[in-house]
Specification:
461 residues; alpha+beta; Uridine Diphospho-n-acetylenolpyruvylglucosamine Reductase, domain 2; Uridine Diphospho-n-acetylenolpyruvylglucosamine Reductase, domain 3; Alpha-Beta Plaits; 4 domains; seven-stranded antiparallel β-sheet; five-stranded antiparallel β-sheet; 18 strands; globular
């Protein structure tokens, strides 16, 4: 437990109104999108890097745990205070510090909301591609900590592909700057890439240097409707195999479609076996040509209809449908186990068939949707955690899903990270030597283990 003196010292650093200890105030900082709960002992909201340095130094003196937190939209429990301690809320550090159109670089604080940054950049003809489904409220710092992806990863890559430099506070309270603000830079070890995706276990990110792109001249959105899911996933491999590279290529299975339509009532075909949502961007003439080629290819692969959004409003409605899948599923059961496996694109039909078989055998509601273009399948098992038998069957099913994923040459997480939810399975993908190397890195950066404890590794690893 934190002493009263420790609370007073934290209050002096950030100001009394930015240090919260009331149990009711702490509740919302003890959970994330996993719906698991671990309440912190306090939450502090620093205004700048100097306050973070002071907090970290205090944590070394006392000591106590520090858990960096963005918007709490993570899907793997990465920001949960599983061992108590102090949650470091970075929402006050939300400034876009600079946008440099000539060098195509932006410098931002970690609390900047991803969608807000994209809007600011669009006004200047610039583009930051990573677009997690939670972009309306998730933050750049959280995206960096988890190496967030999104629908446009197919063409443009994920967060790590756009972070070229960082400022971060180490567990010692020292300030480190990594990376560059130039197009190239290969001086020394790539500490920037090491910190991206480290889930708050190695350092506290205080500033991010982002690479930008020109805003695409034109975009076109298509919705292809299929009677059967296997036809849709086969169409995905055909599109990529034909040399076409959409900026996004998303799929939804039948139950996902029905849940979203009940949730939004926007006219989605409830009887469809699957949908593909396809975005093409680039030079206007090329966009028109590629959209038509994709439409023709989908029809040839069994699509019963392919609609092209007439304008930006219709395109945004389709994106809204995709982003609403996760919350819409809760009509089926009160709780959700969400996994984000990834397999080689050519193996999508195989993993989808296996998911259907596992769902039937374990008598579970399993839905799948996600980034079909890059093989990242979001597997959602809708359960009632109060049903012990259902929980046990779910644990068995998840284990089999991961085994099947690895057997197909895949990975246990495409973008959600390990956090706490995937800890028991990490050894299925990474061998003991690899885990030990990671543990040594953690020890070098955080010898006292004060940063985001209980994440990624089992204590026995």
């Amino acid at each position: 437990m934190l002493s009263r003196d420790t609370i007073r010292q934290l209050s002096r650093i950030v100001g009394r109104r930015h240090c919260r200890t009331d149990p009711e105030d702490l509740i919302c900082y003890g959970y994330d999108a996993t719906d698991l709960r671990y309440n912190p002992e306090a939450v502090v909201f620093p205004a700048d890097v100097q306050e973070i340095v002071a907090i970290v130094r205090l944590a070394n003196e006392i000591p106590f745990y520090l858990i960096p937190r963005g918007a709490g939209s993570g899907m793997s429990g990465g920001s949960l205070p599983v061992r108590g301690g102090v949650v470091l809320g970075l929402s006050r550090m939300n400034r876009i510090l600079s946008i440099d159109p000539e060098n195509m670089v932006a410098v931002v604080e970690p609390g900047v909301v991803t969608g807000h940054l994209q809007e600011e950049l669009a006004e200047q003809g610039l583009f930051y591609p990573p677009d997690p489904a939670s972009l309306a409220f998730c933050t750049i710092g959280g995206n960096v900590a988890e190496c967030a992806g999104g629908a446009r990863a197919l063409k443009y890559g994920v967060t790590k592909d756009y972070v070229i430099g960082l400022e971060a506070v180490l567990a010692s309270g020292e300030l480190v700057k990594t990376g560059v603000q130039t197009a190239k830079g290969v001086v020394g070890y790539d500490l920037t890439k090491l910190l991206v995706g480290s889930e708050g276990t190695l350092a506290i990110i205080t500033k991010v240097v982002l690479k930008l792109l020109p805003q695409p001249e034109s975009r076109r959105m298509l919705m292809a409707v299929f009677n059967r899911l296997n036809e849709a996933v086969e169409a995905v491999t055909k599109i990529i195999g034909a040399g076409l590279l959409p900026s996004a290529l998303e799929f939804m299975d039948q139950r996902s479609i029905q849940c979203v339509e009940d949730y939004l009532q926007i006219g989605l075909p409830r009887d469809a076996g699957a949908l593909l949502l396809i975005e093409v961007d680039g030079v206007r003439e090329g966009v028109v040509r590629h959209a038509e080629e994709i439409r023709t290819l989908c029809l040839g692969q069994g699509a019963r209809q392919v609609e092209v959004a007439a304008n930006e409003e219709e395109a945004e409605t389709l994106w809204q449908a995709r982003r609403a899948v996760s919350p819409a599923l809760f009509k089926l059961n009160p709780h959700k186990v969400s996994e984000d496996i990834a397999v080689p694109r050519s193996r999508i039909p195989d993993i989808v068939a296996k998911l259907e078989e596992i769902g039937q055998r374990f008598r579970l509601i399993i839905l799948c949707f996600g980034h079909a273009g890059d093989g990242n399948v979001h597997v959602n098992i809708m359960i009632d955690r109060n049903d012990a038998d259902e929980v046990a069957r779910t644990e068995q099913a998840v284990n089999e899903i991961f085994q099947a994923t690895l057997a197909l040459g895949g990975t246990l997480s495409g973008e959600h990270g390990i956090g706490i939810t995937k800890i028991p399975y990490l050894g299925m993908e990474i061998d003991k030597l690899g885990l030990e190397a990671m543990r040594r890195i953690k020890k070098a950066f955080d010898p006292r283990g004060i940063l985001n404890p209980g994440k990624i590794f089992l204590d026995s690893d």
